[in-house]
Design brief:
about 160 residues, alpha/beta, 2,3-Dihydroxybiphenyl 1,2-Dioxygenase, domain 1, 2 domains, 5 helices, about 30% helix, elongated
Length: about 160
Amino acid sequence: MISKNTICLWFDKDALEAAQFYAATFPDSAVTAVHHAPGDYPAGKQGNVLTVEFTVAGIPCLGLNGGPGHPHTDAFSFQIATEDQEETDRLWNAIVGNGGQEIACGWCKDKWGLSWQITPRVLSEAIVDPDPAAAKRAFEAMMGMVKIDVAAIEAARRG
């Protein structure tokens, strides 16, 4: 059953492949249903995978194989909070190593064009530090990074 509020993600034709990748990569994620087209449609034929219900880190999503012409943009991203460098590296490497792309400041894109922020909790806490100088140092350190380096953020925060 589709939840009351579900994120719908448009894919050209690979919604099932993407959902399976997310389910295998992120904790608390799963493919919950696959629905096939009951008839032909502009981007496909009867019997093709039309929609896929899945969760990403507990967030309900619906992948729609709607065909080309609606690429993902950086205006939408999943932000995944990580506990340490090991988890940060694992998720980052899974996305980038599976045909993805490094961006900057903890952002990367998967091979389907979806943007991800792989954000260690240390960074989120550092940039809201009650000490404005510590927050600024951590923020400035982050601005020079691609993948977030937890130890460097902690060092910058300490000064």
